[in-house]
Design brief:
With about 375 residues, the protein is an alpha/beta fold. It has one domain: Carbon-nitrogen hydrolase (Nitrilase/N-carbamoyl-D-aminoacid amidohydrolase, 4-Layer Sandwich), CATH 3.60.110.10. The chain is built from 12 helices and 14 strands. A hairpin with a 2-residue loop joins strand 10 and strand 11. Helix 1 runs parallel beside helix 6 and helix 3 crosses helix 6. The longest helix is centred in the middle third of the chain and has 30 residues. The termini are far apart.
């Protein structure tokens, strides 16, 4: 029996649907109904920023997610969004992982400190790779092994929490396994616990390509009672085409979970959702994962963004986490009427140069 099969069997045992349902029943959540009279000028949304915290049981993981959903419900939010790689905590279910994790993280931190010193002394700019990042085959095996049990577990947890709290929940991303291929994907659930849809990541990082994750080629738009949404993932926001397409297929809001595998840098962060929102006149809802796991360091701020002139500070920010690390739940009100009015007033919005764009597409994508 190979390692992938053993991992899948272990996680099926540790993430059983029976355990999930039993624990959710014990939470005794008081169900609410806030979606009956929706005011399109006052739609409250929440985005999660959270630190990776390996857990030793699925019950601890449920409690972790439940804490954020419960706070969003208290804030009277219609929607809560979890970040990319929202399942990393579940690696703590692997025997011996916590000890290994500490060793790899300490080694990576020391390596980064040495590199900073080296750069200071000789002015070099080198990328230090962790041992685990270099072992792409091992990571691929782990991801394939955990994929199906974790997907089933997360979907069940999010479905139950959405139903009990009466709220729309974006699951954050997990590994989706179809036949022998794996994808980075996330799912959206309605307040009845029903799956609305699942979106795969379309633009991958070098790291994801190396461990065998496949890219998607299509983006779906979902109609909610308070607007149409799309759910691209992290790197998808680096390219203007993603938001341009989102606008053309009728989206009002973009749900964007992120987990940036790099040290935080304000200017690097600005290559993503903020400029895309300004270009496309859409609301941008960004959740983020941060912290250390297996020698890898993730950073990023959660934020809720709108076109510049629609925000009080004329900075395009409705809400932004105060730090790129730690746990935060940010909340803001979005106004679709105001968004549509802003689009009407935007002098150069949606300007097109068909002749240029045709040549651009041909040269960029090799389309004849």
């Amino acid at each position: 029996m190979d390692i992938e099969v053993l991992i899948e069997k272990w996680f099926n045992k540790k993430i059983s649907l029976e355990r999930i349902e039993k624990h959710c029943q014990q939470l005794r959540i008081k169900r609410r109904r806030i979606l009956e009279n929706i005011d399109l000028e006052n739609i409250r949304v929440s985005c999660v920023q959270r630190q990776i915290h390996p857990v030793n049981s699925i019950e601890r993981y449920i409690d972790l997610l439940c804490g954020f959903v419960g706070q969003a419900a208290k804030n009277n939010s219609y929607l809560i969004i979890f970040p990319e790689y929202n399942f990393f905590d579940l690696f703590g279910l692997i025997p011996g992982f916590c000890c290994l994790n500490q060793i790899l993280n300490k080694r990576a931190i020391k390596a980064k400190d040495r590199e900073k010193y080296r750069e200071k002394e000789i002015g070099e700019d080198r990328e230090e790779k962790s041992d685990l990042k270099e072992n792409n085959h091992f990571l691929t095996t782990v991801f394939k092994g955990v994929a199906k049990p974790i997907e089933a577990g997360i979907k069940r947890i999010v479905s139950l929490l959405a139903k009990e709290y009466g709220i729309y929940i974006y699951s954050g991303s997990y590994i989706l396994k179809e036949k022998e291929e794996i994808y980075n994907a996330g799912s959206l659930f309605d307040p009845e616990g029903n799956l609305i849809g699942t979106q795969k990541k379309m633009h991958l990082t070098d790291f994801e390509v190396k461990i065998g994750i496949r890219r998607a080629s299509k983006m779906e738009v979902y109609s909610l009672p308070f607007g149409k949404v799309v759910c691209p993932i992290c790197m998808d926001a680096t390219y203007f085409e993603t938001f341009r397409i989102a606008r053309e297929i009728g989206a009002d809001m973009v749900i964007l979970p992120i987990a940036n595998l790099e040290e935080y840098n304000l200017w690097k962060a600005l290559r993503g959702i903020w400029p895309r929102v300004q270009e496309s006149y859409l609301y941008g809802l960004k959740s983020s994962l941060n912290g250390w796991i297996a020698g890898m360091h993730f950073t990023g701020k959660a934020g809720i963004f709108a076109p510049l002139l629609m925000t009080e500070g004329k900075d395009g920010i409705l809400s932004l986490s105060p730090s790129y690390e730690g746990n935060h739940l940010i909340t803001a009100d979005v106004n679709l009427k105001k968004l549509y009015e802003a689009r009407e007033k935007a002098e150069y919005q949606e300007d097109k140069n068909a002749e240029f764009e045709e040549k651009y597409i041909e040269k960029t994508y090799g389309i004849n």
